[in-house]
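Appendix B, record 7
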Amino acid sequence: MRVTIVEARRWGGEASWAGAGMLVPGSEYEEASDALRFALQSLTLYPDFVRELREASGLSIDFAQCGSIELAGTEEELAAIGERAKRQAELQIRAERLSNADLRRIVPGIDSGLAGGYLYPGEGQVDPRTLMAALRVACERSGVEILENEPVVALEWDRAALYASVGSGKILRAGCGVLAAGTWSSQLGKFLPATFPVKGHLIGYPLRPGSLPHVLRYHHTYLVQRQSGYTVAGTNEERAAYDRVVNDETCLEIAARAKRLWSELPEKAADGWIGFRPGVNAEGPYLGRWKDSPLWLAYGHYRNGILLAPATAERLSTQIQASL
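Structure tokens (predicted):
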């Protein structure tokens, strides 16, 4: 096939650039559902996905199956996480209960007032920026054409083809297409499933590599350390349309929460940024052919876009090839 990627701004410059890159399905899904099965499938695909991209691009990707810890502030919260872990066990998700003493031994500097937590040893993190850089090189070496700063302003189709009108005035024709524009996706058709932006702030710290052995999650606060030592903390959720302003007060509030959680953090973060999660009113993501059209949908992943990327690609590429 000949493939063209049409990018409204710069390559991977929105949620893919902003995300923390947590690969933590155990603490993202409450029940042993189809959504959780899909997330686990994607997590299983990750090592080979990263290996393939490394080989195809020659670039390094910051990926580690370092395990994640979901933390509990009270015994009641710890019991609730334990009940969820029992439900998830039928899907072979490993979760190990940790006491307060276990936490303080595993993560020196952790909040001593926590009741405990659960370690998910099979989970981890990937730096989306290194992943996207390698993906670009792999695509270009495979003959993929990448058009940047070419927003699609309209989509039309007939039985034979899909037609995308872009900002420069061109009309691109293809036998089929995938709509993967994140929170902007539903703007390209009033009958498409709706999505909306959920703004989130993140902050970062340059730390010693290996100083935080696991991903930490406690309610809306998380800490993710790259293999370089750079550590990302988040987050918040705002229905603020497409406001790109980085709010200093919000960053300070996240820093204070993160510092309470892990005292080894510096008093101030080195930088802060925002991203737009693609929120949906119904259960997402939307994956698959749109009615009988030559258009496939791949959006509405909310905060799990990076986690679900390999399984999304596998599902849609299989469906598209089967339809030709």
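Remarks on this record: The first strand starts at residue 4 and ends at 6. The mean pLDDT is 95.
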